[in-house]
Recover the amino acids of this structure.
């Protein structure tokens, strides 16, 4: 004979994460199916593809976490959870949509492609506030707010994720220290861009940004990133060897990731706009083709390596 474990009204951390994992798998599968039919469209719209994924997720979570379906997504239904208000009643569609906006926007904007002009303008301050302030606050509250298990989106709209068919129980208040830490996280996120802007205007970052802009101006290129560094290799039979490099990941508008001549032309652009590349051992151009719609992504890559001095002498 086994004893039944009495469930608390508020859902536990891992049960809630499990429901989210199931819902994420469903959305990911939906995105991949759409990608089979709309790949070229998703590639052409580039960074705007994340808006597609966000819209799908907004409809899914907005509708299914509302009173329309009893406050249960598929994941929550499987694990017998639901979203309710302080009266243990499923919330309205409008409130559910606002709830997902607060949760989804920081994650959707995180990793999105922004132009250098946008990232060096006043726009970087609200973006940092929303992305980093939102992300860190949501994650912090998920993990450490153990009394009500409310994260940022729950606190704003007054909702709880609870075990279904369990009677409502009295709850304590959210620890005030949690709210102070959330305020500090948002304040830090708002201040950080002031330092990153100064960093971007100094060398070598300023030169790297110029290379990035030059690469992005190529008609074959949708977007490009640039970095510089070194790699150290060692083995028992050989001496330690350090290789310096300039590396660029170039996102293409067409599936030409194996085009060596295109990679060579792009490597020449790097050298022309970043003379320090001639002092490196390798210029690596990674050609990338694919899409990212937030809920799913598909990429193909091909790395092309060039000796910068050989490239310069061949011109």
């Amino acid at each position: 004979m086994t004893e039944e474990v009495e469930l608390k009204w508020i859902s536990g951390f891992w049960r809630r994460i499990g429901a989210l994992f199931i819902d994420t798998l469903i959305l990911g599968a939906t995105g991949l199916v759409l990608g089979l039919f709309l790949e070229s469209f998703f590639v052409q719209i580039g960074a705007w593809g994340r808006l597609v994924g966000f819209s799908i997720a907004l409809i899914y979570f907005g509708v299914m976490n509302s009173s329309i379906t009893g406050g249960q997504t598929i994941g929550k239904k499987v694990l017998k959870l639901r979203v309710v208000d302080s009266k243990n009643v499923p919330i309205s569609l409008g409130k559910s949509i606002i709830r997902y906006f607060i949760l989804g926007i920081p994650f959707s904007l995180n990793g999105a492609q922004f132009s250098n002009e946008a990232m060096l303008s006043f726009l970087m301050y609200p973006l940092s506030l929303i992305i980093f302030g939102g992300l860190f606050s949501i994650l912090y509250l998920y993990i450490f707010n153990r009394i009500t298990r409310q994260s940022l989106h729950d606190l704003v709209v007054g909702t709880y994720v609870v075990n279904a068919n369990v009677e409502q129980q009295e709850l304590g208040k959210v620890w005030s220290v949690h709210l102070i830490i959330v305020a500090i996280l948002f304040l830090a996120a708002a201040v950080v861009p002031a330092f990153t802007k100064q960093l971007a205007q100094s060398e070598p970052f300023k030169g790297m940004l110029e290379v990035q802009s030059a690469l992005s101006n190529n008609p074959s290129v949708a977007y490009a990133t640039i970095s510089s560094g070194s790699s150290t290799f060692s083995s028992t039979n050989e001496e330690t060897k350090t290789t310096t490099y300039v590396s660029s990941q170039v996102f293409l508008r067409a599936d030409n990731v194996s085009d060596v001549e295109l990679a060579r032309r792009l490597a020449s652009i790097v050298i022309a706009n970043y003379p320090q590349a001639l002092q490196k051992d390798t210029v690596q151009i990674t050609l990338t083709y694919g899409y990212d719609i937030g809920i799913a992504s598909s990429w193909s890559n091909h790395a092309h390596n060039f000796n910068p001095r050989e490239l310069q002498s061949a011109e």
About this structure: The chain has two domains: 13-114+138-168, 205-314. Residues 1-5 have pLDDT under 50 and may be disordered.
